[in-house]
Structure formats: C-alpha cells, structure tokens
Amino acid sequence: MRRSDGTMTCKDLLPDCFKNVRSQMCREFLIDLKEKTQAITREAGLDGAIAREYYVPVPRWYPVPAQKAELQFDLYSFPGATPCSVNTNTAERPWIVEASNMSPFTYFVTMNTDAAAKKGLESGDRVEVESWRGLKVRGVLQVRKGQHRETLAIMGTSGRWAKGQPIAYCKAVNLNFLIELWFTDFDPTCAPLDHLVKVTKLA
After folding, report:
1. To the nearest 10°, the Cα dihedral for 132, 122, 94, 169?
2. Does 182 lie in the same domain as 115?
3. Residue 7 falls inside a structural domain
4. 196 near 68, Cβ under 8 Å?
5. Which residues contact 75 (CB under 8 A, 6 or more apart)?
6. CA-to-CA distance for 35 and 66, rounded, in angstroms?
7. Does 117 lie in the same domain as 31?
8. Which residues, other chains included, contact 167 with Cβ-Cβ below 8 Å and sequence gap of 6+?
9. E strands present in 5-120
10. Does some domain include residue 11?
11. Which of 11, 133, 154, 176 has its CA 20 to 30 A from that of 160?
12. What is the pLDDT averaged over residues 158-179?
C-alpha cells in the first residue's frame, strides 16, 4: 500500500519476495521419470541421447560442452535488448528503428569497457565474433561500463535476412548465426544455453 506521501517500498510492490517460505529441493519424481524417459528414447532410436545421471532427486551442476572450450573463448554471449527493441516485430517498425538509432548500443556488438581494453579494443572497432564451434559474425564494437566483464552482447532481434522486412533487412548482427542447437549444449537442470565466444579486431 502507498505511504501518506504517495511512495511505495519494495515490500509493498513485491510482498511475495518477503514471505518466509521453503522451496522444494528433493525431486523424487525424477527417479521414476528416468525409466519412463529411457523407454521412450529407446523406442525412438535415441537411446543414450539423455544422460542418466541427470535424473537424480537432488539438483546438481553439470558442465556443458561450451564450458570445456579452449581458454581463448572467454566471453559468454547473450542476446541484449533495449527498451525500444524487446519483441521480434520491433525491428520492422520505422519509429522504433528511428529511436533505436539514437542509442549508442542498439545495433552494435557490446562489451565491458575494461575487458575490451585488455584485448586492445575500443568503441568503433570492426570486430569478428567467433563461437567455440567455429561460427562467425562481424560487426562494430561499442563498449560500456555497466556490462559484465565476461560477456558479449548482441541485440537479439537484429540482423534479419528476410527480404520481406526491408527496414530490418541486414541491419546489424544476427546473434543466431553463432548458435547451433545441440541437445547436449543445454544445461539439464533449467535448460539455459551457455555459449562461449572470442572477439578479434579486424584490420
């Protein structure tokens, strides 16, 4: 509820976050689910596609292949976004594109300022981003202080290739060109895709 001066606290806005509750940690249902899943994958000719050790009652952390990549692939890439470009259809809206062009980060490859400096990179450099699987894209770098040092971001809705979208066509970099969807690349506990890349300056 609002205070007399009209303001609200975090507890007022998010009351559930302040409740004293417990979260279930033991997931016994996975024991039976393992046998059922194996029967289905065996029948589909996919026996061994899902590692048996994932089906344990107590959550565990399992490294995915990307985390075993060579040390030169030292940045986690992720799809960035701006307030103007959060949905897939915003890339084709002229007014939103015009507003996005006012941002120094929307259509660029972004990195932490200090992390980029250690690699001899700065804003305006043309760079090549290579995934740990060997896929590559090129773009223009923009650095910023507020981004984590171990990350590289590309706007998730940019780099369209459909000619039926003339405004968005080939605008900026398409992050998806760096990604191959392998079942083994997903974390088995909550299904995020860890994706490592390296960045180099183009001559």
Report:
1. -40
2. yes
3. no
4. no
5. 111, 115, 150, 151, 152, 196, 197, 198, 199
6. 28
7. no
8. 91, 92, 93, 94, 97
9. 75-80, 109-112
10. no
11. 133
12. 83
